[in-house]
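Incident log, structure service

09:12 report received: a user says their structure output differs between two submissions of the same chain.
09:20 pulled the input from the user's history:
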Amino acid sequence: MNLRRRDFITAFAGSVVAWPLVAIAQQSKVMRIAVLMGIAENDPEGQRRVAAFRQGLHDLRWEEGRNIRIDTRWGAGDASQINAYASELVNLAPDVILATNTPTARALQQATKSIPIVFAGLTDPIGDGIVKSLSRPAGNITGFTSFNAETGGKWLELLKEISPATKQATVIFNPKTATQAIFLPTMEAVAPRMGIALTRAEVSDQASIKAAIGKLAGNSDAGLVLIPDVFLAQNRKMIFGLATAAKLPTVCPVSYFARDGGLVAYGSNFSDLFREAATYVDRILKSEKPSNLPVQDPTKYVLVINLKTAKALGVSIPPAMLTRADEVIE
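09:34 re-ran on a clean worker, output below:
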């Protein structure tokens, strides 16, 4: 055997030994995922969403303790705390970060321009300056939206269907945390055609919530519509307690609002959005770039009706609406 051939065989044998070691090293690498939640850790809805995200990762063969580590922080609706946690998570140098509402996405966007970010549940990522385009988001951020502008008109339609006598509807939101700009133009355009006078109630603390609902107490032709808003989510049980006492039918943007006392909810299934977000996290962990992953709109909306609240309000839900409902709470 000449020297050249012997060197080739030796090199080949060495590479054969090395290949499995490289493969094992790749398989055993633990990828780091950060999650910044906008709501409080003791909120059951927040736990459901995180569980859905973890399940989505599990379905894609990502297992915590084996090939991923997940660091989660809970902002509890506090802007300063969300900003602090965003910086803290970025300093951990994760491979990808999950943003879970507009305030968390904004905070993470300011904290890093390089670490990939996937969002779940933003309403208006273009209007909020999170992405430049849905089809080509550019930068390091992409994800899944939760609503579109037409949903605002649907909320008014549901209010009128539940309570045909409705002549005035108050839209309640915190301008600092809500994405009202996408919904209000649609609502203000369709309200006159329904014979509804639309008013805005901007709230920023519990006292202003009480004052806004108090103005409507005793008005048999009034209703309340909630805009998607982390502040309202934090105070939802108080809102529905006050609204029920004031005999106000409420239409809400997310299903768990109805489970916590709202009359009717119509919006995205957020657990599904979080499971979907896991698919983008998976693709990014496998080296795809966020800028090449288009922002996706929701494909399904759910209708939830709380019959217990309807009974307390003295409202009779039309049979056709009950038939359409995805969930009826009794």
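09:41 both user submissions now match this output. Likely a transient worker issue. Closing.
09:42 reviewer note: The chain has two domains: 26-147+269-299, 150-268+302-329. Confidence is low (pLDDT under 50) at residues 1-13, 15-26.
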